[in-house]
Amino acid sequence: AEEAAMLSGNAEGGEEGGDKLSSAIPIDTDAALLRALDRLVIYLRIVYSIDYYSASMYQLEDLMPHRCGIFHARGRLDSRSSTVTQREVNDHLQTFNEKMAHLLAVPRDLTDAEIAALGARDPEKAG
Q1: CA-based, 20 to 30 A from 35: which of 60, 74, 111, 115?
Q2: How far apart are the two ends of the chain, measured CA to CA in Å?
Q3: C-alpha to C-alpha distance for 57 and 59, rounded to whole angstroms
Q4: Helix (H) or strand (E) segment spanning residue 50
């Protein structure tokens, strides 16, 4: 519910919503969570060949833009602004969700006719 309200932008309506979208929000960080995030991103890359930042899955590691010897390095927080606006957060969430949708979509199950058309074999007859 909160995410939907944030994505809709004008949860309060009127000009207050516009002020909330342009107001600065301080960025909180947790070193332990950042370390865990880095490990998860590396795990996805090594085990599943998923480039989290570009929301791409590669069938072969050789097809990845950079082999696993090179990793994405996130800049330190003090090298960037320590605040963001609500609009920037909303834009990032929307863009990220659009990029990740194809990786998170569950493919539908094949029907028996489609399985047969692909050359399914009866395990009882295969001997």
Answers
A1: 60
A2: 55
A3: 7
A4: strand 50-51
Give the pLDDT confidence score for residue 80 in this predicted structure: 62
Distance CA 101, CA 56 (A): 11
Structure tokens at 32: 């332990």
- Closest to 52 measured CA to CA, from 38, 62, 63: 38
Distance CA(4)–CA(108), nearest Å, equals 26
The answer, as to whether pTM is greater than 0.70, is no
pLDDT confidence of residue 10: 46
Reported as a single tens digit per residue, the pLDDT across 64-87 is 776 555 565 566 666 567 788 889
Residue carrying structure tokens 């949708």: 101
**Which letter, b or e, does each residue of 26-57 get, where b requires 16 or more Cβ atoms within 10 Å of its Cβ?**
eeeeeeeeeeeeeeebeeebeeebbbbeebee
